């Protein structure tokens, strides 16, 4: 077991990684929850590691103060007399932790002689056993240069082109992450600044990075203009800046050029294998790439909406028709086909052929393994699905698709405590996703964690409002908003949302299912059953299975009408299956 356990909130994952690396550099064995095995219960592993550690380092931040998980871990450490705490943003600590020494590491950038850091390592040494390292011993190897790539602004006349500027930003982050001599802030952290007016020195100080890259993208017809500037985080001065006006067909070469220019500006040496890795793309077709980026935006914005599933399925189908070797597009096509079959009863193999094609092209594509999780679960092969989750997490634990797949599998198995951390990760990774915070409301309500349930509900409402401003007819988004408002106790507003949506999209089964969840939360069992009945009567099977384990319906389980409704739907499905047999 490890000497040190690190407790932190997701928004400070980069700072937690820096602290862990620095402690490992001093010879300590450090553990944090990015090393969770997929086959074991989240709470079980946390408890085991927390109990066995000699020191628990708690990284306090504004989010950590609101996190029941962090407070619980800190309280266990305090009781066991092995708590070392630090703050990265100067936030006021909750009681009783405000009465215990806390190292202020606001703006810490890895300096070995920083007073806050010296305070941390002295306490760690005392608890682990032994003397604190001297200043000379603490001096690490030269700290890597570090950069945060801010989301490139969409300067196109069409605001719908934002998917393209986001895709460019994500690709630059991915490319720079392949440079071993450069530390790159994760996408989920960088995108918290999207759409905000920020001062670069403030960003650099908050994230403890030496440089910040910002830019913009303008796409019109067959042309693209990209501006980019690399800024010194300490002085705010420009290290490098360039404007590129190119044909859209040159976009891949342009991305390579930008990444290599940044490496040169930082006076880093790009190793041959790193250069080759940066230049390796999933496709050589700009048209297929553009279609994939557009499809992924529909995937994120859809949260199970049938229209969105159809849209990103068609877009991916077109992408793989253009480039049959585009593994990413095959994986997303598999996800669309799986959802369309499971939730909407569409014909076909549910994505089996598409996912096998993706894996044949790229066995290490985490998103393809994630798509296979749902296919295996649907086929009644849970052990194989768990193995796919483990593989996907090993390949890319930061992937949005991977965390959604893992969380959804656990949730449908009724293992909400294990589902919650995966959903939390997905929420931080993808700021446009409104469905996952809605599922977190369900998880935390079932766990009795009402503070976190309300926090997730507020996130859901804020994100659905953004979506509905662009598409007021999205009944699925309205249904997630109604559930969140119900969790916040805003019954009248939730009712208004439901009335409005039923006029707009009365046949949306997923919407009705979610409204039933909201009505249970509002203590209206009659209304919930009246809303749920028509959905189950027409459901091709997915909802009928989900309703058996969905914690949102726990308060209805003793109602004979609820059980009769499910039994009737199950009998109908069994009859349809028997009739389809040869």
Structure description:
With 582 residues, the protein is of the alpha/beta class. The protein has 27 helices and eleven strands. It has helices at residues 13-25, 42-52, 62-66, 68-79, 115-128, 135-138, 162-177, 187-190, 200-207, 251-265, 272-279, 286-302, 306-322, 327-344, 352-361, 366-378, 382-395, 400-412, 416-429, 435-446, 450-470, 475-487, 491-504, 509-521, 525-538, 542-549, 560-580, and strands spanning 4-7, 30-31, 55-60, 83-87, 102-104, 145-149, 153-154, 182-184, 211-220, 223-232, 238-247. Strands 6, 7, 8, 9, 10 and 11 form a six-stranded mixed beta sheet that branches. β1, α1 and β2 (30-31) form a beta-alpha-beta unit. α19 runs antiparallel to α20 (435-446). The longest helix is centred in the C-terminal third of the chain and has 21 residues, at 450-470. The radius of gyration is 25 Å and the shape is globular.
Roughly how many Å apart are the termini? 57 Å
The class by helix and strand makeup works out as alpha/beta
Radius of gyration: 25 Å
Percentage of residues in helical conformation: 55-70%
Q: How would you sum up the global shape?
A: globular
Count of discrete alpha- or pi-helical segments spanning 4 or more residues? 27
Mean pLDDT score? 86
Largest sheet: 6 strands, mixed
What would you say about this model in short?
With 582 residues, the protein is α/β, with parallel strands linked by helices.
């Amino acid at each position: 077991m490890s000497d040190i356990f690190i407790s932190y909130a997701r928004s400070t994952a980069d700072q937690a990684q820096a602290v862990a690396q620095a402690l490992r550099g001093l010879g300590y064995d450090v553990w944090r929850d990015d090393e969770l095995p997929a086959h074991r219960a989240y709470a079980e592993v946390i408890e085991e590691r927390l109990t066995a550690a000699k020191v628990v380092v708690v990284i306090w931040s504004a989010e950590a103060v609101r996190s029941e998980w962090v407070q619980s871990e800190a309280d266990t450490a305090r009781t066991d007399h092995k708590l070392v705490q630090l703050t990265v943003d100067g936030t006021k600590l909750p009681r009783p932790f405000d009465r215990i020494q806390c190292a202020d590491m606001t703006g810490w950038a890895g300096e070995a002689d920083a007073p806050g850091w010296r305070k941390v390592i002295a306490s760690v040494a005392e608890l682990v056993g032994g003397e604190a390292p001297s200043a000379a011993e603490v001096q690490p190897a030269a700290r890597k240069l570090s950069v945060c790539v801010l989301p490139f602004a969409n300067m196109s006349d069409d605001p719908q082109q934002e998917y393209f500027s986001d895709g460019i930003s994500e690709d630059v982050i991915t490319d720079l992450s392949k440079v071993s001599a450069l530390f790159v802030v994760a996408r989920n952290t960088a995108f918290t600044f999207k759409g905000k007016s920020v001062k670069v020195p403030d960003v650099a100080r908050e994230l403890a990075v030496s440089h910040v890259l910002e830019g913009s993208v303008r796409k019109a017809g067959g042309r693209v203009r990209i501006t980019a500037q690399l800024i010194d985080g300490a002085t705010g001065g420009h290290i490098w800046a360039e404007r590129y006006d190119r044909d859209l067909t040159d976009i891949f070469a342009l991305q390579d050029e930008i990444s290599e220019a940044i490496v040169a500006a930082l006076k880093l040496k790009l190793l041959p294998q790193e250069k080759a890795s940066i230049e390796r793309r999933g496709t050589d077709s700009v048209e297929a790439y553009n279609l994939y980026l557009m499809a992924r935006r529909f995937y994120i914005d859809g949260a199970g909406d049938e229209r969105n599933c159809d849209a990103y399925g068609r877009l991916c189908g077109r992408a793989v028709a253009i480039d049959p070797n585009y593994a990413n597009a095959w994986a997303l096509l598999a996800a669309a086909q799986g959802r369309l079959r499971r939730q909407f009863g569409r014909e076909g193999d549910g994505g089996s052929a598409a996912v096998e094609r993706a894996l044949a092209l790229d066995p290490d594509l985490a998103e393809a393994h994630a798509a296979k999780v749902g296919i295996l679960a649907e086929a009644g092969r849970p052990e194989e699905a768990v193995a796919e989750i483990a593989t996907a997490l090993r390949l890319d634990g930061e992937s949005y698709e991977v965390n959604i797949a893992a969380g959804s599998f656990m949730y449908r198995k009724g293992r909400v405590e294990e589902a919650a951390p995966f959903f939390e990760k997905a929420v931080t990774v993808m700021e446009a996703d409104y469905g996952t915070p809605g599922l977190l409301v369900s998880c935390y309500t079932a766990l009795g964690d009402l503070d976190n349930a309300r926090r997730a509900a507020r996130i859901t409402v804020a994100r659905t409002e953004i979506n509905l401003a662009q598409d007021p007819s999205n009944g699925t988004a309205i249904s997630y908003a109604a559930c969140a408002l119900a969790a916040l106790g805003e019954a009248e507003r939730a009712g208004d949302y439901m009335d409005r949506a039923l006029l707009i999209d009365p046949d949306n089964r997923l919407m009705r299912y979610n409204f039933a969840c909201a009505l249970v939360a509002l203590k209206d069992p009659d209304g919930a059953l009246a809303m749920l009945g028509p959905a189950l009567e027409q459901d091709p099977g997915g909802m009928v299975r989900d309703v058996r384990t969905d914690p949102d319906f726990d308060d209805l389980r003793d109602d004979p009408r609820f059980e009769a409704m499910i039994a009737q739907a199950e009998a109908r499905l069994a009859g349809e299956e028997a009739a389809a047999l040869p």
